Amino acid sequence: MLPWGERWGEVRKLLERPGPFTHPDFEPSPDTLKMLQENMKVLVIGAGGLGCELLKDLALMGFTKLHVIDMDTIDLSNLNRQFLFRKKDIGESKAKVAAEFVNHRVKGCHVTYYYNKIQDFGEDFYRSFHLVVCGLDSIVARRWINGMLLSLLCYEDGMLEQNSVIPLVDGGTEGFKGNARVVLPGLTACIECTLDLFPPQVNFPLCTIAHTPRLPEHCIEYVRILLWPKENPFSSETAIDGDDPQHINWIFEKAQKRAAEYGISGVTYRLTQGVVKRIIPAVASTNAVIAAACATEAFKLATSACTPMNNYFVFNDTDGIYTYTYEQEKKEDCVACSQVPQELEMKLSDKLQDVITTLAESLQYQMKKPGLTAMIAGKTKSLYLHSPASIEEKLRPNLKKTIEELGLQDGMELAVADVTSPNTVLFRIKIKT
Amino acid sequence: MKNQKKDGTDAPKQGTQKRASAAQLRITKDINELTLPKTCDTEFPDPDDLLTFKLIICPDEGFYRGGRFVFSFKVGPNYPHEPPKVKCETMVYHPNIDLEGNVCLNILREDWKPVLTINSIVYGLQYLFLEPNPEDPLNKEAAEVLQNNRRLFEQNVVKTMKGGYIGNVYFDRCLK
Ligand SMILES: [Zn+2]
């Protein structure tokens, strides 16, 4: 091993010398490494297959202010690829064990961990990072962090303030396939722009599951969807917990019985767990490649030592090695990133009806039947909807209430749905005095 | 990026968001533009929660004329990437709805696409009452009767809607 003094020699070569691929803003300087080590605050979401790789890669690149969130605990089946975990760690928080491992192993690195859901934290928390790197297997979580980073964007006279952009580097793997991407919220294609790229959830026709099963999966789905709610094997209203071996065992045994009735083979405990938890097989080498690509992008974004990739990288080593990088285009009518919340002026004494009249009559909007909801203290509140009749009746009294009575305040966002636009449109309330 | 200072505290505050989620924005539009056929009505137990509601169908023609059928809708955080979960809360003698309330409608599962809306599902469910489909059965017995003896099927439907037994299964009265 190199003496500690020369620890960052290879990183220095990238940061202290000019080169043909550097970003136009880049100036070779010893300060850049210092900045990387002392200032750059990076959030890693997920401490699983990708997350372990990401933390290790980022720590060995010189990042020292790393933060990691993961709500999961360590399971025996993780140990073959989530290499920061040992047998003694089973049952412990992934974020905690991963952070402690890296802190112990990489001198000078300080990983802060959160054994939490990403939804537990708010804007102030996320705004405090320079970069977010995701290694997740959940589409819901990706959509959530994407929405959060978009909601942090600030606009001055309709122009995006560059320093409110927190880049999102996202990696995903599925067996021998993977992808890595860079999202500059508000500037380049976001997660929601490319939602079609995620494979749709496999849902077998219910009648096939019920009466004409042909695959082992059909038998497992039969037990999961139809038999479980009917027989309630673990007291009524107990939802299936994919991590509870008793639950999986019950489903496995029933599925095996059903498979035998129909002469179907292939129902195993592993497959049962896979179907119930919707597990996509993970391959350690794919995780390593994708995490390396993500960490490299994080390094480029942090230092400008190279122009970041533009903007979507696919990788496949099922049969030989195939990679391709291309530009995913920003969707013009993306529900999440296409809109800059417009300011909507109103007085605290205005009635909701006045606001709706403005939206309908002003030449700028010319809406037909605007439906309005607001976010108040993190919860959605329906202000007024035109249909259906049952909800319209309940909300109608709101029309006569004032902005103040409804609890609306300066800076809050209104979501307005109307037939005149393909998506719900966002407005930011500006209170006139 | 290098010039930015980000000295946030490490202790996170409880999360509050100022923006509605993409799923929420989408369902707001679906609901505000819902055009219900005259045989359908909705119930929102909490008008602030557009993700949980009931649909009531009272068919005015076909086998199920005069009945009243309640469906529960649960829209998840991955909407519209994933379809809502729909269950029939009324016990019904129907080839495509089982006695636990599971509904076999292609757009609720294998043929769901994000361009479809709540309205598409409402029309799909309404159609199930006009044209029960014995080809994709969930209640196999009902499907067989429909296929072999339409007259008997019709009698069974009327009997169950008034409240009565088919075999040893009792159906609660669900006439309007
Ligand atoms: Zn977008």
TrEMBL record, chain A:
The keyword Ligase applies. It comes from the Eukaryota. Catalytic subunit of the dimeric E1 enzyme, which activates NEDD8. One of its GO terms (molecular function) is ATP binding. It comes from Petrolisthes manimaculis. It holds the Pfam family E2_bind. It is an enzyme of class 6 (ligase). Pathway: Protein modification; protein neddylation. One of its GO terms (biological process) is protein neddylation. Its EC number is 6.2.1.64. Belongs to the ubiquitin-activating E1 family. UBA3 subfamily. Gene3D superfamilies: NAD(P)-binding Rossmann-like Domain (3.40.50.720), Ubiquitin activating enzymes (Uba3). Chain: B, domain 2 (1.10.10.520), Ubiquitin-like 2 activating enzyme e1b. Chain: B, domain 3 (3.10.290.20). It catalyses: ATP + [NEDD8 protein] + [E1 NEDD8-activating enzyme]-L-cysteine = AMP + diphosphate + [E1 NEDD8-activating enzyme]-S-[NEDD8 protein]-yl-L-cysteine. One of its GO terms (cellular component) is nucleus. This is NEDD8-activating enzyme E1 catalytic subunit. Residues 344-432 form the E2 binding domain. The active site is at 207 (glycyl thioester intermediate). The keyword Ligase applies. SUPFAM superfamilies: Activating enzymes of the ubiquitin-like proteins. Keywords: ATP-binding, Ligase, Nucleotide-binding, Ubl conjugation pathway. CDD domains: Uba3_RUB (cd01488).
From TrEMBL, chain B:
Residues 1-10 have a biased composition (Basic and acidic residues). It catalyses: [E1 NEDD8-activating enzyme]-S-[NEDD8 protein]-yl-L-cysteine + [E2 NEDD8-conjugating enzyme]-L-cysteine = [E1 NEDD8-activating enzyme]-L-cysteine + [E2 NEDD8-conjugating enzyme]-S-[NEDD8-protein]-yl-L-cysteine. The keyword Nucleotide-binding applies. Keywords: ATP-binding, Nucleotide-binding, Transferase, Ubl conjugation pathway. The keyword Nucleotide-binding applies. Residues 1-22 are annotated as: Disordered. Its EC number is 2.3.2.34. It holds the Pfam family UQ_con. Residues 22-166 form the UBC core domain. Pathway: Protein modification; protein neddylation. SUPFAM superfamilies: UBC-like. The active site is at 104 (glycyl thioester intermediate). This is E2 NEDD8-conjugating enzyme. It comes from Petrolisthes manimaculis. The lineage of its organism: Eukaryota, Metazoa, Ecdysozoa, Arthropoda, Crustacea.
